[in-house]
Specification:
18% of the residues lie in helices and 28% in strands. The protein is of the alpha+beta class and 459 residues long.
């Protein structure tokens, strides 16, 4: 490799970091450089989970007509006044109304129209007498109870008034929101475009995901990990492939648009060797909105990525005051943000969640914060940290409280699979004593707090 150009970052290979950037400084750098992507129009069938890019205004009242809310008889409320089981009042049945099929006749004094739930209320009627409060004899219905005006009637516009704003821009669309859009007659809706994330996995020692280990090579774990995280955060992962297209994929520019499952099921070699030319080609020749690089970011002799970014773009940060993930870097190349994540899987997960994920979530219109729910619990034993750095401590939930699993062990994937979540120890703290009340960010949004711990104990 050639020497860095003037102004490029120092070459830290085989020397280590002279200083490390505080986590909060890195966050500010990200937040100042990302903003929500523009909108795109999608079908409501594809809209759930997406971020709304516009206000939704109701163009017509919902419902558009008065309708029955119970099976029974459309009546004039005044004609039922005084009716009881001992004082039955007769009404003449003059028609029938079904959902989508109105009776076609107006209601006059002393008359009733048989009506089903959801059917249009006929003109002249102002209430529905429930079927269980009536007795039918031929073409006469006997009211056994009185109903006041408006009883068992759904009125025009009572759900949503015409001109009302029903959904605000920036809302994450839920299934019930999509149902409302459909009910309003909206077949398509503008949502924030999902960021295209170029995912570059480097390492001459790596085999494609799911491959049996061979000699001194290991299967890539970070590709499936990052692809899943990117999708969770509203992004679309794109894998570089300079060699072969498959039936499971569609190639655009220099990136293969595919799902993590296709990457796992297909034996294509998407991993890049520790070769500066190949890595630079993947970094520059892409239409991605943002780049995430796994591996080659530390201080080893073949950790080329930081210098490539510095030479051909801007390496704004390299080395962060946290454990794990201290070799993390970030900057710009080819006009887009690039995040340099460590190759060790736990460090990679941590660095993604702290930094790359933060940027992707904001591009997608989602909150910058972690998408993890949190609970407060007491530590079962002390959690030791070092002043001056943020620690990402994996923990397990137990009936007694929170049990630390690990702070170190950046390459030990089991430390995150056996953990229920993590605790963040801030840089100004030396840790927490046993019994301290701590905030735990839970990996799973659905399972019980101590699910992983229970499984570990029962295995």
């Amino acid at each position: 490799m050639s020497s860095p150009e003037p102004g490029a970052a120092d070459d830290v290979r085989m020397r280590g970091f002279a200083r490390r950037t505080p986590v909060e400084t890195a966050w500010r750098w990200i937040d100042e450089r990302v903003q929500r992507l523009p909108g795109e129009v999608v079908s409501i069938w594809q809209a759930a989970g997406r971020v709304l890019a516009e206000e939704v205004i109701c163009s017509r009242p919902l419902p558009a007509f008065d309708r029955a809310m119970m099976d029974g008889f459309a009546v004039r409320a005044a004609d039922t006044q005084g009716a009881t089981a001992l004082n039955r009042l007769p009404l003449k049945i003059v028609g029938r109304a079904w959902p989508g099929r109105p009776a076609g006749v107006d209601l006059n004094v002393g008359q009733a129209i048989a009506i089903m739930t959801g059917a249009p209320l006929p003109a002249g009627a102002d209430a529905v007498l429930p079927a269980e409060r009536a007795e039918v004899e031929g073409e006469t219905v006997w009211a056994l109870d009185e109903v006041p005006p408006g009883r068992n009637v759904g009125f025009r516009g009572e759900d949503v008034a015409e001109g009302a704003c029903v959904l605000r821009s920036g809302r994450i669309l839920r299934p019930q929101d999509v149902a409302l859009l459909s009910a309003m007659g909206r077949a398509r809706v503008a949502v924030v475009r999902q960021p295209r994330v170029g995912l570059v996995i480097t390492g001459s020692e790596l085999l494609p995901a799911g491959s049996p280990p061979q000699a001194f090579q290991i299967a890539d774990a970070n590709g499936p990990l990052l692809a899943a995280l990117i999708q969770r955060d509203g992004g679309l992962p794109r894998f570089p492939d300079m060699r072969v297209e498959t039936a499971h994929s569609q190639k655009k520019d220099n990136f293969l648009v595919s799902s993590p499952l296709a990457a796992a099921d297909d034996p294509r070699d998407y991993v890049l060797p520790d070769d500066p030319a190949a890595i630079l080609d993947a970094l520059l020749n892409t239409s991605a909105d943002l780049l995430v690089v796994s591996g080659g970011s530390s201080v080893g002799q073949e950790d080329y990525v930081p210098q490539l970014v510095a030479q051909h773009g801007e390496l704004a940060i390299h080395g962060v005051a946290m454990r794990p993930s201290s070799p993390t870097g970030m900057g710009r190349i080819g006009g887009r943000l690039v995040f340099l994540l460590p190759g060790n899987p736990v460090s990679c997960l941590c660095a993604y969640d702290f930094f790359a994920g933060r940027a992707i979530r904001q591009l997608a219109g989602l909150p910058a914060a972690w998408p993890y729910r949190s609970v407060r619990r007491k530590l079962t034993r002390k959690l030791v940290s070092q002043l001056g750095r943020v620690d990402y401590a994996r923990v397990r939930m137990t009936p007694e409280g929170v049990e630390p699993v690990a702070i170190g062990g950046a390459s030990l994937l089991r430390s995150v699979t056996e953990a229920d979540g993590f605790v963040i120890v801030p840089a100004e703290s030396e840790g927490y004593p046993a019994g301290a009340d701590v905030e735990v960010f839970l990996y799973s949004p659905f399972l019980g707090d101590n699910m992983a711990g229970s499984q570990a104990k029962s295995s």
